[in-house]
């Protein structure tokens, strides 16, 4: 956690715009959960907002609706097995943090745990949109804190120093791919 640096909120979207898999943590009435989520995207710059699809049958949805907050985390390649594990188990049936011995800390501005060792964190407060939530399972949230591992994200850009510090993308059936090499093009 000592490599974390703040990301200006107006630039928080840069943490998500390459489409990585995420972990979502939430807590309500002293009960916490972590789940994997692939459908997270930036929505706005100022104030920064994002959208999260959170199926009504998930335990996390119950916690998010109760607390009005959650944390989006970007796991690294070395956390792919953890991502698959938490995405394949129901938090309503077990304490995933205890069962899978997940190292955790606390979010800075909201009441929720964070998974230690992730590459980036976006702490979010839900903007109530009952129609979207009920009909489409779509949650809109304001990002109230953003921070990232400076070894992989600094000066507003991702730069992956080694294969283990790359974000991941989930396909299906346990298959992931790691974010590839960055390259620059000039406008013509």
TrEMBL record:
Keywords: Flavoprotein
GO terms of molecular function: FMN binding; oxidoreductase activity, acting on the CH-NH group of donors, NAD or NADP as acceptor
UniProt cofactor(s): FMN
UniProt key word 4Fe-4S: no
Gene3D superfamilies: Electron Transport, Fmn-binding Protein, Chain A
SUPFAM superfamilies in alphabetical order: FMN-binding split barrel
SMART domains membership: Flavin_Reduct (SM00903)
Domain of life, per lineage: Bacteria
Domain Flavin reductase like per the UniProt entry, residue ranges: 14-160
Family per record: Belongs to the flavoredoxin family.
PANTHER family: FLAVOREDOXIN, FLAVOREDOXIN-RELATED-RELATED
Protein name (Swiss-Prot/TrEMBL): Flavin reductase like domain-containing protein
Organism in which the protein naturally occurs: Pseudomonas knackmussii (strain DSM 6978 / CCUG 54928 / LMG 23759 / B13)
